[in-house]
Every structure is written in structure tokens, then in C-alpha cells.
Design goal:
By secondary structure, this protein is mostly helical. The chain has helices at 69-99, 118-141, 177-205, 209-218, 225-228, and strands spanning 3-7, 10-14, 230-231, 236-237, 246-249, 252-255. It starts with a strand and ends in a 10-residue tail after the last strand.
């Protein structure tokens, strides 16, 4: 295992170099970075219309809803908008329960003291949202057609991909825009599922998500989704609905039915 070298009448022994250690924080054995396309299920053939070019595309469309290119564009825009609203909603529900744990988020709106009539606010919101949504729809069907402000004509946004207007709507981009788009759609999908979970749990327990989490931690074997209800084709054990059928705000009665009310006894 040793070699000898003679130089100027002397004898030196050169030892074999020791193997290099793996860099700190990396795995030396058994680690291989996946280089292929990420799919919702390994080793499947994704539909031809989901070619991976769309942000967050994992080849999931078992019903073939996106086979029509125009429908696919519409579904992507709808998913993106619902994802953004769901992220705002779930964050708002959690923050409200931390700040005011005595207020149930399902009833928070009707406990507000407004200095004006709610019908005026509803009318203004209906007008404003319709205006914004119509312009967003036009941007989807004819990209670039609504880049310029019709009232303040000096204001405009640059050409952009539908759903990502940029300009004044994104004055600061904290990182690579393509990575941020993927993170947004992933978090948005989780938020949509979370919001449905928040609402369904509230209808069953009459409590917010953090209160339900505390109950589960206190007694994990009793306070679970399966303890509240099980529905199968042959057996149903449905919980009662903990939400009142309606609420009254400024003299206006607002229906608040439970989702999937047919499952409630």
C-alpha cells in the first residue's frame, strides 16, 4: 500500500490520499435528485393537454375537463382566483381567532357595528366587483385589451400573462417569479382545502379551527373527524348542524344553511 520515491539520495514515503469527506449538510450515500417531471402519481401518462407548460401542472385531470384549450384557460384562471381568495380567507380566519378568540368567525360579520346601512355597501360592492371581474374576463379572452386605465389614461400596466398583471399590482417581487408562481398555486390549493375544512368543522362543532385543534390535542382519541360522523353507502352516522339556519343583521335575515344538509339528521 506504499510507494517509494528517491530524490537527491533520500528516501521518502508517499501515503495514499485519504478519501474526501462528504460536504457538510449533504448525503454521501442513497441520495439522487429527481430530474423528471413531477406528476400527481408516479409512472402515469398525463393527458396530452397537460404538457407541463402551465404553472403547477402535475398531470391531474381524471375527468378530462381541460381537454378543450379554451376551457383549460378558464379553469386555470378560476383556480388561481379561488386560490388567492382562499389564502386571504384562511389567513383572516386564523388571525381573527388569535386576536379575538371569543368571536366565532362564522358570526363575526354580523357582530360588526357599521355606521351606515349594509345595503349601500352591498350595492357598491356589487358594482365594483362586477367592474373588476369584467375587466379581468376581458384580459383572459383578449390579452392586453385592458392594459390601459379607461379613466386615468396615463396609467397602464405592461403586457403580461393572464392572471399575473404585474406593474402596480406587483411593485416588488421577492425572488424568482417562476418559483413564486409555483409556490403561490401550491399554497393556494392547500388553502382551498383548508377553507372547506374550516367551514365544515365549524358547522359540526360550532367552533373555529384553532379551538377545534385545541380540543383534538386535549383528547385526540375522542375529538376526531370520525367521531363526528361517518357516511358510507350502507351506513350513516351524521352529526347535527351546529350553525343556526339564519342570522339577522340590520333587520335583514340571511340564510346560513349547512353544506350537504341532506347528511344532517
Amino acid at each position: 500500500g506504499q510507494t517509494t520515491m528517491r530524490r537527491a539520495g533520500t528516501k521518502k514515503v508517499a501515503k495514499k490520499a485519504a478519501p474526501k469527506k462528504a460536504a457538510s449538510g449533504t448525503k454521501a450515500v442513497g441520495y439522487r435528485k429527481f430530474e423528471g417531471r413531477g406528476l400527481w402519481l408516479p409512472d402515469i401518462d398525463p393527458p396530452s393537454w397537460l404538457d407541463g407548460s402551465m404553472v403547477g401542472d402535475r398531470g391531474f385531470d381524471p375527468l378530462g375537463l381541460g381537454a378543450d384549450p379554451e376551457n383549460l384557460k378558464w379553469f386555470r384562471e378560476a383556480e388561481l382566483q379561488h386560490a388567492r381568495w382562499a389564502m386571504a380567507a384562511t389567513a383572516g380566519i386564523l388571525v381573527q381567532e388569535v386576536v379575538k378568540p371569543d368571536v366565532f368567525f362564522y358570526e363575526a360579520a354580523v357582530k360588526a357595528n357599521l355606521p351606515f346601512n349594509i345595503l349601500g355597501l352591498v350595492a357598491f360592492q356589487a358594482f365594483a366587483m362586477h367592474y373588476v371581474e369584467i375587466r379581468r374576463w376581458r384580459d383572459l379572452v383578449a390579452p392586453g385589451s385592458v392594459n390601459q386605465d379607461p379613466v386615468f389614461t396615463n396609467n397602464s400596466i405592461p403586457d403580461h400573462e393572464p392572471g399575473y398583471p404585474g406593474g402596480i399590482f406587483a411593485p416588488f417581487v421577492p425572488g424568482d417569479i417562476n418559483e413564486l408562481k409555483v409556490k403561490e398555486i401550491k399554497n393556494g390549493r392547500l388553502a382551498m382545502l383548508a377553507f372547506v375544512g374550516f367551514v365544515m368543522a365549524a358547522q359540526v362543532t360550532g367552533k373555529g379551527p384553532l379551538a377545534n385543534l385545541a380540543d383534538h390535542i386535549a383528547d385526540p382519541w375522542t375529538n376526531t373527524i370520525y367521531a363526528k360522523g361517518i357516511v358510507t353507502p350502507f351506513f350513516q352516522s351524521a352529526p347535527s348542524c351546529a350553525i343556526p339556519p339564519s342570522v339577522t343583521f340590520q333587520g335583514i335575515e340571511i340564510p346560513t344553511p349547512c353544506f350537504l344538509e341532506g347528511l344532517w339528521p
